[in-house]
Amino acid sequence: MKTFLKTPRRRATSLAALLVVLGLVATAVVASTASGGRRDTVTLRVGLFGDFGYHDLYAQYEKTHPNIDIKEDIESYADHHANLAKHLAVGAGADDIESVEVGFIAQFKSQPNLFVNLKKLGAGSLQKQWLSWKWQQSIAPNGAQIGLGTDVGSLAICYRKDLFKRAGLPTNRDAVSKLWPTWQAYMAVGKRFEKHSPKGVSFFDSGSNVFNAIIGQLNPAYYDSHGKVIVASNPKVKAAWNVTMQGVQGKESAGLAAFSNDWNTGYKKGTFATVTCPAWMMGYIQGQAPKTKGKWDIAAVPGGGGGNWGGSFLTVPKQGSHTKEAYDLAKFLTSPASEAYIFKQTGNLPSQPKLLKSKAVLGFKNPFFSNAPVGKIFGTSAMSLKKQILGPHQGDIQTAVSNAIQRVEQHKQSPAASWKQFLKDAKAVS
Amino acid sequence: MSEQSAVEAPVRGRSRTTIRSRLHRIDSKTAPYLYISPFFVLFGAFGLFPLGYTAWVAMTDRTLLNPSWSFIGLQNFTTLIHDSYFWNAVENTLAIFLISTIPQLAFAMFLAYVLNTKLRARTFFRMFVLLPQVTSLVAVALIFTQLFSHDYGLVNYVLGWFGIHAINWEAGRLSSWIALSVMVTWRWAGYNALIYLAAMQGIPDELYEAAAIDGAKPWKQFRYVTVPLLRPTIIFTVIVSTIGGLQLFTEPYLFEPLKQGATGGSARQYQTVVMYLYEKAFAGTQFDFGYAAAIGWALFLLIGVISLVNYLIVRRIRSAEA
Q1: By residue range, what is the domain housing residue A51?
Q2: Which of A47, B22, B149, B300 could form a disulfide with B153 if both were Cys (CB 3.0 to 4.6 A apart)?
């Protein structure tokens, strides 16, 4: 009888114990989330990948808005977007303002319910501020505007004057621009360069950077207007591949993966003479190799100008508790005055036509790049940019093709075999 | 039953003691459960629940950003079985595991043996081998990545002294496996050495004395006394290394020069299973949670099988003696 009674009681007590422990855990969790956040000051967090050159602007904004405190989180390109996706999925953890690069914007805008529709906060009246395609790029299928444009990456070629001179090529930027009206011509110049270049110096840094630039000039490129992936059927993509392979097989590529350690060191040591330069690349080069100041110059991009590579948006995730304040800050950071200031600081090119035509931009010369009229070069090129159709898996296709080009550069596959595998990969992600 | 009631019968007479003894009995019966409950609560919340939830997600086509999904049964698993990139990742993971674990445990055993001898500044050396353990994993990966870099890495520089042409460690399949194994070994050898050392110190001296009297030289003593007596410890380290080795992620992830997509090199030459999971779930633009969950479960099963195989192999240490 007794033993019969015992079991349920024992069960009950152990259950009670369990509940007590669970309760403790729960209260601890609640306590930790409830604390923090005084009413009077609002802390806004800004999530970026890389330095956007905002520091001085934060200080300025905090001065005029004493109740706002701004904190910045900087992560790498890949980590930033992966973490943003995680935070959006779980509904917590995202910053008040999150930057999104153009390669990811199509993916994120397919879920407009996760972001604040900035039109509802009055962004519609600002529309004229931006290049029309830049404004369109962050509009969701349901018509919501989820982001304000920061910069655009119009293209040029950054080249090392000293290395050109040693290879017997012209060094004047106009003469250099005339050397390569097309990408084929660019590769032919590379061949000339390799014949006379110092040992261990390649003509360009990596095949994938050249390829991305050519793709940036295409429309349509990877996606057609119906959102279908047309990598395999678009002859222009194959042509871009072929001309890139021409350079790679001519041993003109240093074979360095963009943003790798060796690539960064390559800037310092001067192991490549040219690099495709979206406007934002200028800031990157200055950061990596400050001692090469004056050795660089900038020429026009082959392929008849135009072409966009990179550029970002500032979005306001809906989960934030200060979305109104966040929008005001994003509006300030993308205001004409701010974008003009950032251009002079970092070289990130404004996405606003008025600015691109302004004296402040057009008249700007960059001393790091031998006083090249970078404002004129990039500004003019940006005005001729057109909208490119982007798809949700743009970023994955780019990764796949970068790997494909690397496989050839590392002598692991023939161009034909690597292309075949790239098509398979591109099909798998779409 | 009868014994129990005999004991409790007189107790029932005095009510105060009854309550007390009851309380005492409750205390002694439940307290142990209470003491161990934190583990089970935490394990339930952070181990068991995610395990079951992952199994559930693996049977859906859920993506991270899209809230709508549907149940698709075992479709993710059938796709996985025919996914050549998955099997490539399994192959890489197993290869890196073998290349890193076997030399590492042998080296750890050797280290432990040396540390167990009468060494000068013994405590210093014992602490010293543990240093890699307290180093941040990210720092280890980043520094080794630089050491193994193609153009300006220290490893290639030193190899150059011997006339060996610069190796592109990251690009090659075997070379990248070796580089990653060096990272793993460097970090874990000291840790395993200390575990072996602790076990060695538990072996009574008499056994060695007896062996010495029987004419066993140090090597034979090591082979026939030390190793068999370390058997449980060896099993432990092998299982722990198996679990850790098959979950390898941080080192190969940071080893990658193209910090995009987590593909583990241009030809996926060192993409591990966890990296593949990460690629599917987070790294690209697919955010394919269902498929990533299926990879997670496949990895779980794989670790189970390999652990069992390792256990059976290592268990033979003693059977060989008997």
Answers
A1: 42-152+311-356
A2: B149
